[in-house]
Amino acid sequence: MRDTRESRLLLVLLVAIAFALITIDIRGGEQSPLDGVRRAAASAFGPVEEGVAAAVDPVAGAVAAVRDSGDRSKKITELEHENTLLKQRLGSNDRNRARVRELDTMLKTAGRGQYGIKGAQVIAIGAAQGFSWTVTIDVGSHDGIKRDMTVLNGDGLVGRVTTVGPSTSTVLLASDPKFTVGTRLEKSSEIGFANGQGDSTLKVELLNGKAAVHPGDRLVTFGSAQDKPFVPGVPVGEVVRVEPAGGRLTRTVQVRPFVGFSKLDLVGVVVQPPREDPRDTVLPPRPAVQPTPTVTVTATPSPSASASANPRD
């Protein structure tokens, strides 16, 4: 543009308009009528400014200062992002604390039964090799895992190892309809066989058709020859229903398993069986029954009541 009288007048006019807009913007504060325009400009030119910031840093800094005057949206976005990260960390810490408690419970269970276990994590769940209820764990032959080893967690019996790879293994869960394990009833030592029923209870056939069994009675694994596939004494579940005998040679009971098969995470593979049968010692102690407080009320008759009961002749 040539340096003419018209160009100089135009420049003065533009400068005057610019100062007028700045004055209006400053006086308006957060209610400035230019606030919407400023936001639109920031959205449109922000990426471009970041790309050329190194080349025009002083100018870009000044423009950004004017553009962001009274605009807190960027700071709010940053704070929201920080809050999201904190919530994620808190959730992760909660999960870690829960897993520490789960691991501690499993180690205590293994300690009571004197089981040597190899800790593992469930990394997949679903059908495998024709089995309906299976999980995959992250240990295998490189970790000393072999077929037909007992798998447990802090609550009790999880299942048995069916397939072993170099770094992973498949576990058939006790809830699978093809799963069978020998059981022994707490205290009475009545033996039987438990079978999975999918997501329902375990069905246990006690060999003694006249066995005395009641809801609330608990069962543990009976154990197998040479401790494969099952070591003795692992908690199995609690009786919830006793089927009518009906003159049969066996007694059928429904058992709620101690293990929640839909929420498995950390498990232990028994790589070293106990030297002796732990019997019922692995079962958790029953909660103490709190006595019901009783209140004795002594009634003392009033003098007027005694007089009315014994009127004079």
TrEMBL record:
Keyword vocabulary terms for this entry: Cell shape
Stored Pfam families = MreC
Bias-annotated ranges (Low complexity): 291-313
> What positions does the domain Rod shape-determining protein MreC beta-barrel core occupy?
130-270
InterPro entries membership? Cell/Rod_1, Cell/Rod_MreC_2, MreC, MreC_beta-barrel_core
Superkingdom field = Bacteria
Query: Looking at the record, which segments are called Disordered?
Result: 274-313
User: Is the keyword Transmembrane helix assigned to this protein?
Assistant: no
Q: Where are the transmembrane segments?
A: none
For the keyword Phosphoprotein, the answer is no
- In UniProt terms, what function does this protein have? Involved in formation and maintenance of cell shape.
PANTHER family for the chain: CELL SHAPE-DETERMINING PROTEIN MREC (PTHR34138:SF1)
Q: Which family does it belong to?
A: Belongs to the MreC family.
NCBIfam families given in the database record:
PRK13922.11-5
**Protein's recorded name:** Cell shape-determining protein MreC
Organism in which the protein naturally occurs: Streptomyces orinoci (Streptoverticillium orinoci)
The organism that produces this protein has a lineage beginning with: Bacteria, Bacillati, Actinomycetota, Actinomycetes, Kitasatosporales
